[in-house]
Design a protein that fits this description.
By secondary structure, this protein is mostly beta strands. It contains no helices and 11 strands. Strands 2, 4, 5, 6, 9, 10 and 11 form a 7-stranded mixed sheet that branches. A hairpin with a 6-residue loop joins strand 5 (about 45-50) and strand 6.
């Protein structure tokens, strides 16, 4: 059974930092690309970052480049999203997703039958 569990969200002031974790079970990072998405109230879901252990590729949305860093600990089957310099516009529910053979070529939401999503973690940045 596949399970993705996000954690690390919370309330932080503008300019602060948070580290999100996506603990994955039932998927191999050799096969799956892990990506972070976010969705703010009234807005469309937005791709934030992705990482592929298969080809070593990472990708970031322009809105977070230079502030967010994605990394993976394959031994723990966990992907992290280090978020620094947080802004009010970063407020959203953050989701991690696992895409089979995704390759991290883009930040489109995966929708295959063997792709999976976590339940999300709330990040709130107060100004």
């Amino acid at each position: 059974e596949v399970h993705l569990a996000e954690s690390g969200g919370g309330l932080v002031q503008t300019g602060g930092s948070l580290r999100l974790s996506c603990a994955a079970s039932g998927v191999s990072f050799d096969e799956y690309t892990i990506a972070w998405f976010r969705q703010a109230p009234g807005k469309e879901r937005e791709g934030v970052s992705c990482i592929s252990s298969n080809n070593g590729r990472t990708r970031y949305a322009d809105s977070v480049k230079g502030r967010f860093t994605i990394s993976s600990d394959n031994a723990k089957n966990t992907v992290y999203l280090e978020m620094n310099g947080l802004k009010a516009e970063d407020t959203a529910v953050y989701y991690c997703a696992a895409e089979l053979w995704g390759g991290c070529h883009d930040l489109e939401p995966p929708s295959g039958v063997l792709d999976y999503w976590g339940q999300g973690t709330q990040v709130t940045v107060s100004s």
